[in-house]
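look at this stuff:

>
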Amino acid sequence: MENNKAGGFPKKILIVDDNPALRRITRKILEQAGYLVLEAPDGATAVVKMKENPDLVLQDLILPDITGYDLVHKLRSLSGNPLLPILAFSGFMDIQGGTWDTSSGFNALLTKPVQAADLLETVKMNL
């Protein structure tokens, strides 16, 4: 287990994804690394979970109730922290193909399926 604590408390990561199997796998990887994980299956739940002050958000781009691009701006404003790391998590974007646009509001993009080591490295770099 890594030392993923700030002020003695584990860092909180909010996973926003409508796929329960993917949330479960991602949660397990993050918890084994010492993170506290919150989950939201949609944008409305993610908005509520923001009250728990996550340190980082890992968010799908395609959600049942809101686009990922609209949600990233909403979550960032709700956090009160313009520097809150919010990572896009998608299987529909080609990071190698140059389609990633940093003006989207996201700090980084992880493509699905993601390897555990890549997930943990990207999370650590953005915290």
User: Anything to note?
Assistant: DSSP finds four helices and seven strands in the chain. The CA atoms of residues 85 and 126 lie 6 Å apart. The beta strands are 5-6, 9-10, 12-16, 36-40, 56-60, 86-90, 108-111.
